[in-house]
Design goal:
Blueprint lengths: L5 E5 L8 H10 L3 E5 L11 H6 L4 E5 L12 E4 L7 H7 L9 E6 L7 H10 L3 E3 L17 H6 L5 E6 L3 H9 L4 E5 L4 E5 L3 H16 L3 E7 L7 H13 L3 E7 L4 H4 L6 E4 L9 H4 L2 E3 L1 H4 L3
Parallel strand pairs: 1-2, 1-3, 3-4, 5-6, 5-7, 7-8, 10-11, 10-12, 12-13
Antiparallel strand pairs: 8-9
Length: 297
């Protein structure tokens, strides 16, 4: 049994309103909570070093599951399960998936408890349900950077039903498969079809690569977040870019913002960290490439 007195608590932005409730719960059980207010983007973003510096005995990570990141102290993960019932939404909109025989299910950490009830409902209505399971993810779980559970069953299903919220997972989910994706939104209780134009996105990607090939100064971003740190990839890309006659600089930060690289003369940012940065072209006002794109320069 974990023996700890001072607990370092990490809470994602969407659950910051629960900070007082969580700290109060811990205090009522004899713990001393220290709540981090730094942005938390996932289990790849453990603040274990901060916890150790502040004399904490353990880290409580809310809203995510174990990402297999080695930490400096014991970590307890609490996915903060939601009480949202997707079956109610599915029942109202079942006609939209009626024609599909083989249906894949996927969701995020907060709704993993709904996977079995969704499976039972669909199977009770004559459907064959498939749920991918690749470690370290839970069965049916997707992350913003990991859709291996989707790809594991992609060639066996006719469509996917995804339970979640927000825009980030939905856009990444629909790009991870060529099958129709139906989205049950836990925030709004709505049911919709995700649209992804692969031809348009591929054209945008090629144009981005072509434009970057005519530029000369590249910043290769390496995050210091333990689950996003890919220094070997950055070093390999730097060698490749230099061989192509580019000026390539490896840059590092915990959380990258436009202000941190302002005035450095970087024309193209190559992102080796969280893939969501790839979509921040307008925010950074510069071209952003992922490693695969950079390799095609």
């Amino acid at each position: 049994m974990l023996k700890a007195r001072k607990i370092f608590v990490q809470i994602p932005e969407g659950l910051k309103t629960k900070a007082l409730e969580i700290s109060g719960f811990l205090e009522s059980r004899g713990f001393e909570p220290v709540v981090s207010v730094e942005p938390c983007f996932g289990a790849c973003d453990l603040r274990d070093h901060d916890a150790v510096k502040l004399g904490c005995d353990a880290l409580l990570h809310i809203g995510h599951t174990d990402f297999a990141v080695k930490a400096e102290l014991p970590v307890v993960y609490d996915e903060w399960p939601s009480d949202f019932d997707p079956v109610t939404v599915m029942r109202r909109n079942f006609r939209q998936v009626q024609k599909y025989e083989n249906i894949g299910l996927a969701t995020v950490a907060q709704h993993l408890g709904s996977i079995d009830s969704m499976r039972r409902f669909l199977e009770g209505n004559g459907k064959h349900v498939l749920i991918g399971h690749t470690l370290p993810l839970a069965a049916g779980q997707v992350l913003g950077c990991n859709y291996s559970n989707v790809k594991a069953v992609d060639n066996k299903v006719d469509c996917f039903v995804f339970v979640g919220s927000g825009d980030f997972h939905t856009s990444e989910f629909s790009s991870a498969t060529q099958k129709p994706v139906f989205f049950i939104n836990a925030e709004t209780g709505t049911f919709s079809t995700l649209q992804y134009n692969r031809n348009r996105e591929e054209l945008k990607r090629r144009l981005r690569i072509e434009k970057a090939s005519n530029m000369h100064t590249f910043g290769i971003f390496v995050s210091t977040k333990p689950g996003q740190m890919h220094m070997s990839t950055a070093e390999r890309l730097r060698v490749m870019l230099v061989e192509k006659g580019k000026h390539a600089l490896i840059i590092s930060a915990d959380m990258l913002t436009p202000e941190k690289i302002m005035g450095m003369g970087i024309e193209v940012l190559v992102n080796t960290a969280c893939p969501r940065i790839y979509d921040d072209q307008e925010l950074f006002k510069m071209l952003i490439l992922n490693p695969r794109d950079a390799e095609h320069l």
